[in-house]
């Protein structure tokens, strides 16, 4: 009788009980002061990968394919927006949470943008993966040598949640230049599930943005708003900002640049409870982040911005201090 082959996903000899706390796995997590002030991070660290290893048809917005998007149905819209507004605060970090160094976080996010483009993932997958990475990095003290592993795992989990076709795990291993093996990815996935208590899906700004994409008259606003929402992910305060605030601020900046009225906000639904002061503050942060991008931004984000603006008829103004101050001081009647 042929001996049954072991399951390749089964843990090794030291089988752990079902209630094993994977967040205590010292291989991936450390509990010391090194994380809070990672001054020894190699600034030259980058994750370059130019080879195309996975090809599939790029996913289009449902609005461009003529399909029905649940966010555009009037009978569902109020309930969707109300539910998002009521749950988004549950995923914000505590006031004393630990933070990843901004420069290193931006390098990781830029790499995730390139992975997102390589696999032709949807934008929902991108926002979900960055949300997962931010939540796990402020929940655990991750060893810096495993930051890329956690970033790649967040994209892998997000693809399972948002995509109809998920790339093989070997593709992610290849993109990490074989720095990690399959078992390390599986262990890291368990760390995510344990540390986040299986709450893997959180509200993201794109859920507020989707309703305006179906309207032809708001197409320019939607294009610019989508670009600024992706720029906003690189903001120093993105992980402290409610998704509703990030979305409204991005759309508001887009309306100012396209010199459009604010009728598009009616498509989103009731924004009762969104703080105008927070919107203005995050709008300023978006413009400052855009200025950083133009001067020294990462390759992935810069490519994304150039592609977004390639077909845009108007030019993006210079975000001078005077322009930013004007944005900050302007009233927001659509939130009243």
Automatic annotation (TrEMBL):
Is Ubl conjugation included in the keywords of this UniProt record?
no
Q: Which InterPro entries match?
A: Cyclin (IPR039361), Cyclin-like_dom (IPR013763), Cyclin-like_sf (IPR036915), Cyclin_N (IPR006671), Cyclins_cyclin-box (IPR048258)
Which domain of life does this protein belong to? Eukaryota
Q: Does the keyword Cell cycle apply?
A: yes
A biological-process GO annotation: cell division
Gene3D superfamilies documented for this protein: Cyclin-like
For this UniProt entry, what's an example GO CC term?
Answer: cytoplasm
Q: Which UniProt keywords apply?
A: Cell cycle, Cell division, Cyclin
Give the molecular function GO annotations: cyclin-dependent protein serine/threonine kinase regulator activity
**Pfam annotation, one family:** Cyclin_N
> Where do the Cyclin-like domain residues begin and end?
110-194
SMART domains, per database record: CYCLIN (SM00385)
Q: What protein family does this chain belong to?
A: Belongs to the cyclin family.
Name of the featured protein: Cyclin, N-terminal domain containing protein
User: From which organism does this entry originate?
Assistant: Trichomonas vaginalis (strain ATCC PRA-98 / G3)
Lineage, highest ranks first: Eukaryota, Metamonada, Parabasalia, Trichomonadida, Trichomonadidae
């Amino acid at each position: 009788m042929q001996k049954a082959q072991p399951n390749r996903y089964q843990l090794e000899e030291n089988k752990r009980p079902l209630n094993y706390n994977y967040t205590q796995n010292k291989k991936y997590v450390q509990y010391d002061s090194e994380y809070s002030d990672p001054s020894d991070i190699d600034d030259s660290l980058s994750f370059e990968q130019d080879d195309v290893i996975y090809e599939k048809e790029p996913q289009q917005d449902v609005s461009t394919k003529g399909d029905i998007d649940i966010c555009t149905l009037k009978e569902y819209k109020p309930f969707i927006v109300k539910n998002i507004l009521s749950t988004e605060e549950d995923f914000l970090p505590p006031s004393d949470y630990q933070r990843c160094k901004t420069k290193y976080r931006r390098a990781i996010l830029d790499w995730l943008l390139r992975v997102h483009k390589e696999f032709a993932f949807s934008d929902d997958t991108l926002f979900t993966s960055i949300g997962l990475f931010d939540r796990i990095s402020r929940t655990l003290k991750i060893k810096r040598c495993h930051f890329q592993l956690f970033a790649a795992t967040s994209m892998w989990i997000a693809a399972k949640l948002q995509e109809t076709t998920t790339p093989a795990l070997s593709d992610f291993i290849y993109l990490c230049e074989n720095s990690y093996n399959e078992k390390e990815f599986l262990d890291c996935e368990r760390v995510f599930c344990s540390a986040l208590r299986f709450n893997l899906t959180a509200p993201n700004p794109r859920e507020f943005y989707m309703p305006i994409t179906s309207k032809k008259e708001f197409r320019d606003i939607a294009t610019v708003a989508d670009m600024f929402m992706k720029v906003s992910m690189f903001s120093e305060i993105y992980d402290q900002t409610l998704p509703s605030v990030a979305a409204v601020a991005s759309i508001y900046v887009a309306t100012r640049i396209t010199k459009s009225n604010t009728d598009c906000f009616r498509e989103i639904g009731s924004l009762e409870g969104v703080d105008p002061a927070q919107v203005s503050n995050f709008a300023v942060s978006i413009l400052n982040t855009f200025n950083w991008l133009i001067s020294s931004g990462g390759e992935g984000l810069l490519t994304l911005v150039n592609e977004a603006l390639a077909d845009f008829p108007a030019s993006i103004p210079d975000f001078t201090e005077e322009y930013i101050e004007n944005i900050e001081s302007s009233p927001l009647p659509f939130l009243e």
